Design the sequence.
């Protein structure tokens, strides 16, 4: 009997160990693989709590198992009930229970302090005024990204991909476009909700260059699962160059195919929702496509930005992401290829 | 004392044979008086608390199985990345219906039902305080459940999550009737649990056997009463939330419409002001199962009775101060956040203290571990882990990382399945003999436990890790690049082990109903009053109401323990006693079988269902309910007893028990 | 020979007023539920108020902007009526305890008349608001509060009516006397809740 229990216990312990070991891996969407001060703070708080809680858990389990060591095969009705156990025995137990309760209170107090100080160090730096300011608006099911600036010519709008310079605090102002979404890039910071009628703020900073994936964390309807974004953290010069190119209007089509693509784009239903700065297309219902060719992904980080995927997406986006708001486009194959040529040229 | 001697002389006036004869006659009369209508008529008119509670338990268990099937479907879908087993629309309906079912149609009703069955027996009453309200509550609940599943089968299942946040659930983003059905179903089930709460509190306060003063309440009863009060103060919030939502959708009010001054966060406040206490409404009754099981198996009094009671009460209070920790990611003032962090951590103290007291009770006892205790031990392992992750979620900064991820999915299943379902299964094994007269198989019980325990941990432990790795909850699929595939596969395999455990239980029940060992009155040699009557108990529960002599009535009962005499055997009478000291006050006549409650439930049901389509239904429904209630009021409340009462005079004049000497206790 | 001590309860009454009777507890638990419902309703009222710079929001009338504070006339009349209705109800309450059938009947009839008038007046109160339920969030919550309270007035008056018919046509027994006392408690509660709502709906916007 005891042997069997031990085996089960061992299997469980082995399982826990395996899971713990795998938890130290990397990952571009991972809250315990921090790449900035915010996530770093949180990760440290997590490991503190994890360690203390594990110790508490193991101790309680050991005590519980010890309390079961006095086993019997006697039928329960043959064991006389004890309504008044010996006083001294009860007193000893009372002391142990009181001590355990005290330890609980102390542990919780430590957690409370750790939590407050982590929270304070995270919000204190919200005061950064000279950092970068980005407005994010959540839509079903994509992210509208707007870089604000005092200089109006530096303001531009993009979608689903955020570039930030390494080592610079970035303040996000979060707006709800339709329903509630939640902005979450786990490697960089915790999440904040985007709520219609409210404004929420979040700041984060990337200390290591790299690509971090974020995903909507508040259930927002049919395609909640495929509403992701990329944060690209790069050195300041690279960022400046990117920013510079994003503020420009779109590149005019060069090749014949691209020209034809632009024509098809402007004469079809595309313009009902999408904007391409520098052309008559100016609708803000869908993502801004002025520099769509420069983005790494399409469909809110659902697919990489390749010819094949673009074709799939434009022709029948409902197949890829059922329920999304983009209608089917009945383009001839030639038209489709031209449109793709055009879109890919929009660097 | 010559007076006493005279009394003694009187006591000997009844011979053993005479007494037996009188008792037998009384028993027959009681059987007649408390006879239950059978068959189809019984279904709609029977107000016996045991019958209704068992119906509640069976219905809730069916919903538990349905919710389990939905969970299995979700696990199949998530077993590998980019899976197309379910469409996003199907997945979203399934997880919404799964959550709604488990919270509203399984957990709360089954916990209340345990109270409805056991509280009258534990306190020594012949029925609950308001048996007809009880029947009404059951039917309202049943109609709500059927409404949800009918809609679900017709592909009109709600799809906005079990907490249906606005604006997603509002008129703008959820056209059609899906969310309306959800909102109405919420109102239904809340009416039923409010009825349950009033019944349980009324019974525990006023219908106790003499001698069961408030400091002798079984801990089970304490847990049920604390839960009852939590229901009373929490449920109105969600009823308002769902009514506001329904009226926003149906008659164009603007409670949650930011464009007209409404507020999306208001909904979250209203919902979680109910939603967090809800967790404790499910959890506290389970604490009430654990204490009696531990006492029985440890063969000793509970360690720290008063502390346990205080813990239950303070959990009930603090439970109302945590709701904002579901909303840390919304823009709320920081002062508020700090308060809710502190409160959310504080609630770990009473839970911890209870666990310490239980371990102190078990410590050193000679144990013969049977399935009920096994499930309680499983509770310790799982719930403590869930409680610890709960402390992590209470911390605002950490919460912002793990909130709305699979970490939360893991946490909530650890506290709800570990904290409620495991004790519930223990309780089912423990009280099944009382309900049916037969024991469940011990061997199958062990299989049941280990399959559930291993399966459970396989499903939910990896989810902690998935959450930390960035997997948000409520996603119908994920990309292969995320690297979440392996752990999800492990979880999916675990789900089927867990399900097979539940299957073993179902088979065990079916088998035991017919072939289980005969249980006898008190198979566990336990201490509470329900074990003093036959299994299953007679319709009138107690022939002579007992007089309680201590906190552990059956363990402390002396040979010559007094009983209550003088209640009519020809009317449905039970004793009403004072709230604190349980001093006899009234002979309360309990109403018998009646069709009216079912009719009022039907009127309520039609009103709310037709109300989805036209607000005029509420006017029509009010008139309908008014008519039925008027008939109910003017119909003789004890119609069924009339004939018995007319012939009743005879039995009152029977000599014998009346000559037994009354004695003050 | 059997000697078993017993507690003989055969002489106990079947009904008694107030805390003795389970019905009293049932009723008061119900009122606790309703009270927490109204408490949350009131909290909602003040929560929504935060979203409005002016409460109630101004209405653009033909010529000028109007400050649409709820008109006091009907609400005040109703308040006076409801407070006065407690008189006959107290009379009914006391007479039911004493077993004076005649007084109970008179008291109940007057109280029911008050209840019915209050319901009619409530109809006018709705129109004294400058907003419909679907105008804005202010309109929604105020209509909801008035409506919820009106529902209680309706239930209360119907309940009293039923009891009244009973004691006119059937026996004036202990069970129904206990019921009368229970209805009286409900009546006082409905009036007390109204005083609270009256203050909130009519005067908090005026207090700024």
Sequence:
């Amino acid at each position: 009997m005891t042997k069997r229990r031990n085996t089960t216990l061992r299997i469980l312990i082995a399982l826990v160990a395996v899971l713990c070991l795998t938890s130290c891996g990397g990952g571009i969407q991972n809250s315990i693989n921090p790449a900035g001060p915010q996530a770093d703070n949180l990760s440290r708080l997590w490991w503190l709590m994890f360690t203390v809680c594990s110790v508490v858990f193991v101790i309680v389990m050991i005590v519980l198992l010890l309390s079961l060591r006095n086993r019997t095969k006697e039928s329960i009705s043959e064991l006389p009930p004890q309504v008044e156990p010996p006083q001294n025995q009860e007193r000893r137990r009372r002391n142990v229970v009181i001590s355990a309760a005290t330890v609980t209170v102390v542990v919780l107090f430590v957690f409370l302090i750790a939590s407050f100080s982590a929270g304070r160090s995270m919000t204190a730096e919200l005061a950064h005024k000279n950092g970068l300011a980005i407005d994010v608006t959540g839509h079903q099911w994509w992210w509208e990204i707007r870089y604000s600036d005092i200089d109006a010519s530096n303001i531009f709008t993009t979608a689903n991909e955020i570039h930030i310079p390494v080592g610079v605090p970035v303040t996000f102002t979060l707006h709800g476009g339709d329903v509630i979404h939640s902005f979450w890039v786990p490697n960089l910071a915790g999440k904040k909700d985007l709520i219609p009628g409210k404004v929420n703020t979040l700041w984060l900073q990337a200390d290591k260059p790299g690509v971090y994936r974020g995903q909507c964390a508040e259930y927002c309807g049919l395609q909640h699962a495929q509403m992701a974004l990329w944060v690209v953290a790069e050195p300041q010069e690279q960022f400046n160059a990117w920013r510079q190119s994003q503020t420009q209007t779109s590149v005019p089509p060069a090749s014949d195919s691209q020209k034809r693509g632009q024509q098809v784009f402007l004469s079809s239903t595309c313009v009902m929702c999408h904007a391409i700065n520098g052309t008559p297309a100016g609708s803000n219902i869908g993502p801004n496509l002025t520099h769509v060719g420069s983005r790494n992904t399409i469909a809110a980080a659902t697919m990489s930005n390749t010819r094949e995927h673009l074709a799939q997406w434009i022709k029948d986006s409902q197949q890829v992401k059922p329920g999304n708001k983009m209608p089917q486009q009945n383009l001839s194959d030639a038209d489709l290829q031209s449109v793709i040529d055009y879109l890919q040229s929009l660097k | 004392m010559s007076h006493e001697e005279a009394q003694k002389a009187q006591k000997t006036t009844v011979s053993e044979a005479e007494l037996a004869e009188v008792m037998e006659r009384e028993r027959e009369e009681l059987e007649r008086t408390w006879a239950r209508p059978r068959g189809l008529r019984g279904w709609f008119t029977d107000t016996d608390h045991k019958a209704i509670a068992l119906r509640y338990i069976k219905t809730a268990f069916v919903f538990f199985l349905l919710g389990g099937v939905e969970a299995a479907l979700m696990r199949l879908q998530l077993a590998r990345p980019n899976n197309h087993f379910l469409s996003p629309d199907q997945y979203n309906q399934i997880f919404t219906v799964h959550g709604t079912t488990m919270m509203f149609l399984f957990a709360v009703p089954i916990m209340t039902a345990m109270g409805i069955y056991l509280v009258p027996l534990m306190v020594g009453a012949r029925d609950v305080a308001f048996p007809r309200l009880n029947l009404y509550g059951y039917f309202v609940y049943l109609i709500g459940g059927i409404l949800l599943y009918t809609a679900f089968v017709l592909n009109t299942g709600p799809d906005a999550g079990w907490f249906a946040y606005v604006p997603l659930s509002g008129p703008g983003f959820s056209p059609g009737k899906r969310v309306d059905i959800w909102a109405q179903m919420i109102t239904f089930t809340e009416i039923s649990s409010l009825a349950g709460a009033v019944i349980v509190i009324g019974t525990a306060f006023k219908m106790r056997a003499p001698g069961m003063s408030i400091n002798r309440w079984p801990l089970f009863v304490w847990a049920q009463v604390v839960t009852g009060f939590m229901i009373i103060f929490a449920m109105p919030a969600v009823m308002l939330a769902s009514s506001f939502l329904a009226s926003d959708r149906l008659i164009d009010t603007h409670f949650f419409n930011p464009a007209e001054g409404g507020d999306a966060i208001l909904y979250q406040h209203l919902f979680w002001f109910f939603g967090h206490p809800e967790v404790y409404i499910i959890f506290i009754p389970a604490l009430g199962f654990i204490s009696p099981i531990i006492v029985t198996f440890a063969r000793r009094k509970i360690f720290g009775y008063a502390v346990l009671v205080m813990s239950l009460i303070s959990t009930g209070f603090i439970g109302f101060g945590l709701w904002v920790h579901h909303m840390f990611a919304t823009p709320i003032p920081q002062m508020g956040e700090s308060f809710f962090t502190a409160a959310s951590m504080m609630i770990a103290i009473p839970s911890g203290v209870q666990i310490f007291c239980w371990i102190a009770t078990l410590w050193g006892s000679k144990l013969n571990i049977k399935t009920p205790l096994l499930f309680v031990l499983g509770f310790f392992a799982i719930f403590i882990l869930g409680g610890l992750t709960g402390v992590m979620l209470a911390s605002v900064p950490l919460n912002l990382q793990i909130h709305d991820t699979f970490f939360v999915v893991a946490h909530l299943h650890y506290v709800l399945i570990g904290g409620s379902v495991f004790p519930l299964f223990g309780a089912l094994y423990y009280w099944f003999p009382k309900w049916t007269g037969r024991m469940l198989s011990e061997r199958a019980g062990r299989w049941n436990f280990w399959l559930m325990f291993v399966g459970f941990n396989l499903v939910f432990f990896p989810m902690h890790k998935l959450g930390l790795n960035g997997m948000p909850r409520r996603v119908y699929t994920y990309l292969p690049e995320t690297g979440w595939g392996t752990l999800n596969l492990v979880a999916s395999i675990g789900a089927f082990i867990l399900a097979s455990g539940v299957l073993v239980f179902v088979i065990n029940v079916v088998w035991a109903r017919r072939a289980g060992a005969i249980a006898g009155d008190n198979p566990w040699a336990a201490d509470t009053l329900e074990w003093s009557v036959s299994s299953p108990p007679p319709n009138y529960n107690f022939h002579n109401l007992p007089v309680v002599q201590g906190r552990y009535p059956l363990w402390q009962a002396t040979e010559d323990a007094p009983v209550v005499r003088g209640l009519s055997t020809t009317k449905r009478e039970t004793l009403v006693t004072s709230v604190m000291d349980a001093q006899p006050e009234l002979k309360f006549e309990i109403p018998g079988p009646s069709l009216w409650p079912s009719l009022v439930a039907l009127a309520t049901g039609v009103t709310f269902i037709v109300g989805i389509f036209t607000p005029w239904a509420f006017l029509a429904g009010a008139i309908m309910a008014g008519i039925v209630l008027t008939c109910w009021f003017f119909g003789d409340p004890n119609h069924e007893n009339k004939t018995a009462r007319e012939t009743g005079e005879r039995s009152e004049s029977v000599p014998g028990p009346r000559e037994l000497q009354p004695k003050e206790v | 020979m059997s000697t078993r001590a017993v507690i003989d309860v055969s002489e106990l009454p079947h009904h008694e007023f107030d805390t003795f009777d389970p019905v009293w507890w049932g009723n008061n638990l119900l009122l606790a539920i309703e009270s927490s419902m109204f408490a949350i309703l009131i909290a909602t009222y003040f929560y929504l108020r935060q979203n409005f710079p002016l409460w109630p929001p101004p209405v653009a009338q033909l010529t000028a902007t109007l400050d649409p504070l709820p008109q006091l006339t009907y609400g005040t009349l109703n308040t006076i009526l409801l407070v006065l209705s407690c008189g006959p109800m107290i009379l009914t309450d006391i007479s039911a305890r004493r077993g004076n059938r005649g007084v109970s009947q008179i008291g109940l009839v007057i109280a029911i008349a008050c209840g019915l008038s209050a319901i009619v007046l409530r109809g006018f109160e709705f129109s004294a608001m400058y907003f419909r339920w679907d105008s804005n969030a202010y309109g929604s919550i105020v209509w909801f509060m008035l409506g919820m309270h009106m529902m209680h007035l309706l239930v209360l008056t119907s309940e009293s009516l039923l009891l009244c018919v009973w004691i006119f046509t059937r026996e004036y027994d202990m069970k129904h006397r206990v019921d009368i006392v229970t209805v009286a408690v409900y009546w006082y509660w409905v009036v007390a809740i109204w005083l609270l709502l009256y203050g909130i709906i009519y005067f908090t916007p005026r207090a700024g």
